[in-house]
Amino acid sequence: MPIESMQQRGCCAVDNVGVSKRLGFALLMTLAAVVLGIAVQAVSGVWFPPPISISQYGLGPQGWIFSLWVLTLAAAPIISQSLVPQRSRWGAGFLLLGALGTAVMAVVRTDAGGEQGSVNAKIHMIGSILALFFIPLGVAVVLWICGRVWRWIGLVLLLAIAASLVLLLMAAAGLDTTGRGPQLSWVWWQSVAAVLDHLIVATLSLAAWQVSRRRSPLQPAAGSLNVH
Questions:
Q1: What is the pLDDT of residue 219?
Q2: Fewest 10 Å CB contacts: which of 92, 160, 169, 203?
Q3: 76 close to 201: Cβ distance less than 8 angstroms
Q4: Contacts by 218-223, CB closer than 8 A, 24 or more apart
Q5: CA pair distance 112, 53, nearest whole angstrom
Q6: In 3D, which of 15, 154, 21 has the Cα closest to residue 85?
Q7: What is the pLDDT of residue 17?
Q8: Which of 36, 124, 128 is nearest to 73 (CA)?
Q9: How many helices and strands in the chain, by DSSP H and E?
């Protein structure tokens, strides 16, 4: 076996170990986001949909769980997209913008009662808008290059998230979109968007897993000969 081929196999084997570690970490973060999302509801004793808003979970003793929850949800797709061989600058950029918004949400708390009159509450709201918009958009862009099946799954989920956000904005404007009043409509569609966010992030993790399995990092380099 040529020395060049042996060196390439060794480098590819090391790279394959790195890919496996990142894949495991991405799947772990995706699962952790689901567990933390359930935990923050269980600790607070308030299940989806909450009476005021999801951001209210950040107040009180379970606030640190809320912060870990949103941060893991933002980190999982960033790790997953790094496993896709064909990189998307737009997808990575959108995910980073969403992560920035999530970091703001995790650090800056909203007002109790949902009035959003303070500067902190307004900053938190801006962060939540960035997160709600750019994380699913970035994931959908990355899924678009993962193959035909993942492309359409991502598109359907993105359209569902977009529809829930439009209905959320309609409820914020005072329209009753669920037949239970504007406030309950607001928290209902916010909860739907959050659940769909978890679903599209999990979809990217599965797509990254499949794409990484399709790679053949131990194939010999073109033009090299095997000597037995």
A1: 40
A2: 169
A3: yes
A4: 218/9, 218/12, 218/13, 218/16, 220/5, 220/8, 220/9, 221/4, 221/5, 221/8
A5: 10
A6: 15
A7: 60
A8: 36
A9: 6, 0
Q: Are 127 and 107 in contact (CB under 8 A)?
A: no
Both tokens assigned to 62: 């379970």
Q: Could you tell me which of 149, 38, 18 has the C-alpha nearest to residue 83?
A: 18
The Cα 30–Cα 53 span in angstroms is 23
Residue 149 has a pLDDT of: 95
CA-based torsion, 83, 89, 95, 101: positive or negative? positive
Residue 56 CB contacts under 8 Å (≥ 6 apart), including other chains: 46, 50, 110, 112, 114
Per-block mean pLDDT, blocks of 10 residues, the chain (228 long)? 48 56 90 97 95 94 95 96 89 97 96 86 95 97 94 97 96 93 94 97 94 59 36
Classify burial at 111, counting beta carbons within 10 Å of its beta carbon; exposed 0-12, middle 13-18, buried 19 or more: middle
What is the token pair recorded at 20? 């496996």
Q: What is the DSSP letter of 228?
A: -
- CB atoms under 10 Å from CB of 144, counted, come to 18
Measured between alpha carbons, how far apart are the two ends of the chain, in Å?
Answer: 7
CA distance 103 to 68: 10
Burial class (CB in 10 A: 0-12, 13-18, 19+), 43: middle
Q: Which residue, 217, 114, 220, is CA-closest to 171?
A: 114
